[in-house]
């Protein structure tokens, strides 16, 4: 007597395994790179960064990005809040820093920092030339958004940490703008949703 087969349930196809990103490579990319809160902030009010403690990252992560970064491009607000160019990656990285500003004349002379008053496209050209084949890291939400609009961002690289800030500087603040579709580089399904499961700690 033939054995009856159990009916297949709709939607029971195993979801593809979402892998971690591979190590960052120094490939002359324009890299928009941040550690970000779960609710989309890359800095607290006034560019505060004191919330970014007590989290664990992949071993060697700082060294990985320090080794693949050739130059940094930032904005004036971020520079005014943290004017120490030698503090990138906690001092693990040293190299040319470019700050895009509409008023370079009142910027304090800072070793290793060049203030640019130009179009963002020209700022990227200058930054990539200085990066010498390594990546140009964009460490400014405002500059990154402008570059995204010009299709000048090669990758968005985010480390999402389990905290809700509720206020501060958002990665992508574009009210009324058109949604930007992205291609996920984790795993084989480039449209996969990323599942994050957290529990409030009560502190």
Can you offer a commentary on this structure?
The chain is of the alpha/beta class and 203 residues long. 17% of the residues lie in helices and 19% in strands. It contains 4 helices and 8 strands; from the N terminus they run ββαβαββαβαββ. It has helices at 61-68, 76-81, 120-131, 141-149, and strands at residues 30-37, 41-43, 69-75, 97-100, 113-116, 135-138, 155-161, 169-170. The strands form 2 sheets. Strands 5-4-3-6-1-7 form a 6-stranded parallel sheet. Strands 2-8 form a two-stranded antiparallel ribbon. The radius of gyration is 20 Å and the shape is globular. Residues 1-10 have low confidence and may be disordered.
Keywords summarizing the entry:
single chain, 203 residues, alpha/beta, six-stranded parallel sheet, two-stranded antiparallel ribbon, 8 strands, 17% helix, globular, disordered N terminus
Short description, anyone?
The protein is α/β, with parallel strands linked by helices and 203 residues long. It has helices at 61-68, 76-81, 120-131, 141-149; strands at 30-37, 41-43, 69-75, 97-100, 113-116, 135-138, 155-161, 169-170.
């Amino acid at each position: 007597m033939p054995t009856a087969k159990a009916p297949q349930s709709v939607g029971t196809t195993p979801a593809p395994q979402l892998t971690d990103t591979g190590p960052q490579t120094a490939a002359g990319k324009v890299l928009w790179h941040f550690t970000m809160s779960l609710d989309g902030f890359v800095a607290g009010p006034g560019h505060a960064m004191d919330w970014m403690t007590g989290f664990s990252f992949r071993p060697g992560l700082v060294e990985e990005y320090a080794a693949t970064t050739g130059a940094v491009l930032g904005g004036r607000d971020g520079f005014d809040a943290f004017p120490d160019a030698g503090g990138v990656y906690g001092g693990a990285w040293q190299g040319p820093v470019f700050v895009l500003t509409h008023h370079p004349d009142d910027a304090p002379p800072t070793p290793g920092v060049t203030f640019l008053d130009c179009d963002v496209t020209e700022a990227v050209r200058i930054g990539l030339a200085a990066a010498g084949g390594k990546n140009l890291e964009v460490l400014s939400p405002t500059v990154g958004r402008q570059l995204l609009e010009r299709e000048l961002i090669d990758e968005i690289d985010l480390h999402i940490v389990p905290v809700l800030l509720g206020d501060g500087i958002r990665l992508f603040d574009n009210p009324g703008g058109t949604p930007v579709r992205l291609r996920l580089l984790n795993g084989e399904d480039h449209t996969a949703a990323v599942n994050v499961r957290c529990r409030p700690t009560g502190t």
